[in-house]
Amino acid sequence: MGRYHAAIQLFTLGGNGHTEISARLRHQCGKSGGVGKSPRIESDGGQRLADSITTTSQSLSITDSYAAPSFKFNVPSNLFLFSELINKMTYGFTYMTASQRSPTVAFQNTWSWNGRFTYANTLPQDLYLTPFFFVDAFKDWRIYYVPITNFSLSASTVRSRTMSNSRGQVDTSISRSFSGSRQFSFGWKGPENGLLNLSGDYSIDVASTMVDYETMKDSINGKVFFRQRTFSDIVSTLWNQGKFFTLGNKTSYSQTMNFNTRPRITELLGVSQFTSLSFRYGVSYRWQYEPSQGERGKGTGWANSITFGIELDSVYVGGSPYSGSLIKQRAGRKHSSTAATHARTPRR
């Protein structure tokens, strides 16, 4: 019985005045299993039989993985193309192969890879105007030219294949997987220091499958079978059918929206030195589909929540609240109430 493991950090590159590449590549190999030598037998046939028995009784597993989980290009330039686009893109890639055998499994070979792309940016918050600077109550009211505060988008794909054969089994079983996902989100802010002070965020997440494009129906001498397609053929079909950027057929879809406000009603009522209000509403929708189950594999659902908060400041003079002249001291006392959350489970 033995086990072997190795991990290597290959490179991390960077430099001033040059394109900077921050990457981490990892190689990992592991082996475990019973190891034994059969006794030496004079005849070749007997020796082959002894070796076969020894191999059959062993359990062996070998795994190799190569990973660059996160890397980006950092070009030292103030040009918009580099500073706001290329330099803020992040990539990732992982590749893995594994093989094993055991007394019950003749062989099982697996390979998989995944790729990821992410772009995120935060917009400047100094692009605004103050239209009511001449009104003392709203002199700090800001209206932003671009209400979006930040946004991000990402896409990822995962592909794998496993071929296995149990001892005594004639046919080799093949399991395939090819899926993708894409996400988009942004935060926004309405007029600030005004009456409502609205803000919020939105996100959407879509998952899809491309496993239907892995094989093609074919026949030889009247016998129908599914032939494995090359990766270039799969990409070509996705492109021709207009599903390259959607990463195949959708299997799930979800979106979430949140709205926040801190109204200045207490200032209009002249009690802002005692209390402040906050309100939050969130809602999410989801849809899912399992192609293997047909119409029964479809489901939908939604959920929402409402939160209302009140922050109170106590007023003390000589240890007695609300006596004498009003002098505010923060006591850090907060009161909040949350409305019941409503949700509906997926219908099938």
Describe this structure in words.
- The protein is mainly β.
- It has one domain (73-347).
- 10% of the residues lie in helices and 54% in strands.
- The chain is built from four helices and 20 strands.
- The strands form four sheets. Strands 1, 2, 3, 4, 5, 6, 9, 10, 11, 14, 15, 16, 19 and 20 form a 14-stranded antiparallel beta sheet that branches. Strands 7-8 form a two-stranded antiparallel sheet. Strands 12-13 form a two-stranded antiparallel ribbon.
- Strand 10 (173-189) and strand 11 form a beta hairpin.
- It is elongated, with a radius of gyration of 31 Å.
Draw up the topology in text.
Blueprint: E1 2-9, E2 20-22, E3 26-33, H1 44-57, E4 60-74, H2 80-85, E5 89-101, E6 105-122, E7 128-129, E8 143-144, E9 148-166, E10 173-189, E11 198-209, E12 215-220, E13 223-228, H3 231-240, E14 249-261, H4 265-268, E15 275-289, E16 298-312, E17 316-317, E18 320-321, E19 334-338, E20 342-347
Antiparallel strand pairs: 1-3, 2-4, 3-4, 4-5, 5-6, 6-9, 7-8, 9-10, 10-11, 11-14, 12-13, 14-15, 15-16, 16-19, 16-20, 17-18
